[in-house]
Amino acid sequence: MGFLSALYRNLCRLNSALLLIGQQLAWMCVALMTLIILLQVFYRYGLNNALPWPEEAARALMIWMTALAAPTAYRHGGFVSIDMLQGYLPAVLRSALIIALLLIAGVVLAKLLELAINFFDRGFRTYTASIRLPWDPTEKLKRAWVYLAMPVCFGGMLLINIELLLREIGIRLGREEDFPAPVKPAALVAQES
C-alpha cells in the first residue's frame, strides 16, 4: 500500500504544479482577451476602422483559457454531474461505481488526447485567417498553435483522472488518511462560501 500511496502523492504534487501554471496562464489569457476585445471596440466604434485580427485572437485565447482551466475544474468536481445514485449506494458499491466511471472517463480522455494530437499535427498545414506573426508581418500563425490547447487540456485531464482513480482505489484498499484529497485553490474555496 505504501507504493500506491507514494505514487498518488507524487502524482498529486506534479498535478498541483501543472494546475498552478495552468491557472496563472488561464487568467492571463482572460486579461489579454479582454484587452483585445476592448481594443477592437475602440477601433470599430471610436475610430470607425475595425481591425482584422481581434476576433480570431480573442477566440484563440478563449480556447486556451478553457483548456488550461478544465483540468482544475475536473480535479475539484467543477463539471456538471448527476450523483444522486451514489448517495443511496452502500460504500463498497459506491466506490465500485466511482472506479468504473473513472475507468470509462480515462479511456475516453485517452482517445480524445490521441485525436487532439492528430488534430494538432494537421494544424501545421493551415494558417489562421488574420493573426500575423509580430516578428514577420508577412507570415500568418499556423493553426497548430491554437489547436495545441486540446492536447494540453485532455492530457491534463487524463493526469487528473489517474490521480482520482488512484485515490479511490487507495481509499478502498487502505486508509483514507494515506490518500488525502488535494487542496482546493483559494478561488474555489471562496466561491463555495
Structure write-up:
The protein has 193 residues and is mainly alpha-helical. Helix content is 73%, strand content 7%. It has one domain (2-182). It has 7 helices and 2 strands; from the N terminus they run H-H-H-H-E-E-H-H-H. Strands 1-2 form a two-stranded antiparallel ribbon. Helix 1 runs antiparallel to helix 2 (54-75), helix 2 (54-75) packs parallel to helix 6 (149-173) and helix 4 (91-122) runs antiparallel to helix 6. The protein starts with a helix and ends with a helix.
Calculate the terminal CA-CA distance, rounded to whole Å. Answer: 35 Å
Give the number of DSSP strands: 2
Helix content: over 70%
**Largest β-sheet summary:** 2 strands, antiparallel
Overall spatial form = elongated
Secondary-structure content class: mainly alpha
Q: Detail the poorly predicted runs.
A: none
| Count of alpha/pi helices | 7
**Element-level helix/strand string:** HHHHEEHHH
Q: What portion of residues belong to β-strands? A: 5-15%
